[in-house]
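call fold(seq) -> tokens
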Amino acid sequence: MRKSAIFLIFTLVVSGLRADFSVNNWKSVGIIIFPPSVKSDYGKLLLTPEIYDASEKSLADARIINGEGGEVPYTLLVLSEKRKTDYLSAKILDFGCTSSETSFDLYMGEGVAAHNRIKLQTPAENFAYSLWLESSNDKKKWKIIKKNGWLFDVTTDDYRSQHLQISYPDSTANYLRVHIKTKDAGALQITGAEVFRETVMPAQEIKYGYTVESTGVKDGVSWMELKFDYKNIPVSRLYLTAADKNYQRHVKIMIPGDKDKPWRQIAEGTVWKFDTGRYPDENSRIDFNETDVSKLRVEIHNGDNAPLKNTQITACGARKEIYFPGGGAKPYKLFLGNTNARHPGYDMASFFKHIDKANIMDCGLGVIKENKLFAPDDPRPWLEKHPLVFRAILIAVCLLLGFIFLRRSSEIAKGPGVES
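ret:
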């Protein structure tokens, strides 16, 4: 009896402390709109800037509730870039050079699998050379498979950027011949080369709007400070272009810091455009770990060069969708805006890959509105918010302990041999 009574009180206290979904704790709500002509067991919803703006940074607070008040499980799918790399064995043969060209062959063996990339290794620093590439199966007949390639290295005391990779159309050739135009600089030392096939599934990107809060140039550095149109936007890539025909710039990406250091660097990279008429090439992309801050600062290090003309920046992030069962009672509502919510743990993430995605309903979201039932959450502990309940539990515990004490005292007074 004593154990049962104590367990009952413990259960009452713990059940009172547990926090389930309560509509009063979410600030915003939007109705999920199902397509009228498609019937499927599952639906998907694109995460839009408006959803990020109304949610917490981590999206831990996103909850789908059906028409009966039940919580609907979901899983999040991020349509980011995916890469697969298959390496081949390659030998460097017939290395040679003149005052203006370095050339060598790469031999992958007979009957090789397809390949489309070469990555060179060199200790050389601070160069920019054009190149072209040939392929052959017998070292007698050669055909050009790459005309417009570039290699470069930028090295300073605290930074190094290299572009030593050559891409070309898929090939099963046994031999590759690399020609590097060294501009009368003599031989470019090559210490190794990797040949491989890289398959890329591009990310499905969403562009995010912003306003330019400020720009400037100081000590050879041009900068732009961007403020996004919505909060909590997940940005992971920038594209930087300019009107100049030929340039190469080191770029730093910064996010807001603290009072001692207002901006903190999170990434850096190199953008370039070479348009000499013979070997055009360009890279405008800088990738970095996803950030959901409201502002970014982009610094362009010009060195001794003039600032770039008409610089344009595009901010992007991977498309994100949530998938959920759609057969429950309607309407479905998406609740957002709870600072105390934790990430839900649904089983759907584990079996999502087995779902037939051919006919999934493409759903939309109505206008996100203020939840009229929202009541600011009281941060105090549960027992502190309910003092009467606490007192009742305390009195019950005291009475129970008193009863146990009196009964035990009575048993002791009766002496040994008395069954209880």
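DSSP finds five helices and 28 strands in the chain.
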